[in-house]
Sequence to fold (204 residues):
Amino acid sequence: MNTGEINTLETKNKCDVAFNRDGKITFTDGREIPYKHGVTEVKERQFKNNERIAEIRLPASIASVGNRAFWACKGLLRLELPEGVKVIGPWAFALCEKLEYISFPTTLTELGISAFGLCFSLKSVLLPTGITAVSDWCFHACPRLEEIKIPKSVTSVGVNAFFGCINMKRVFYEGTEEEWSKVKIENGNEEFKKAEVHFNCKFV
Fold:
């Protein structure tokens, strides 16, 4: 890993990470590097194309993830976003083709265009209650995505947000059928529209 690109990291005892607000990056070879608390953003393209990253737990101080920050991190399996993150930029985690698990914070209010596009291994997504819109192309070409849990705060689903999600089977919606009927679903979401919708769902 190029330390010039990742100047927000510092090496310290692994035990420190478990008991403070630092994050952690785990690599495919098993190495771990703490991600120092105090950093407020992941900069644009900061980790782009780093195929050695397997897991990410961002520090609690992070408020935003920049454009293409983790683009094409093709070894990434697991992503944990801390409470406090409000914005995920365009293409931030696109083409993370092995990504299987995402933990979103309740503070998240904005998902950029194609934030998780081309994540070929993603099977299930639980959107947080602060989200009001699923952006254009947000989860496009996620062919294994079978279900998504949507809070009633969502009022719109953007153009091609779920385009190419050919295995989409279930939508779990927090609100009523009447509330769902008012959600604006743009063009290019045919698979999403065909999925079975469950209403009045409770998310843990």
Observations:
- The chain is about 5% helix and 25% strand.
- The chain has two domains: 1-90, 123-204.
- Residues 123-204 form one domain.
- Confidence is low (pLDDT under 50) at residues 1-19.
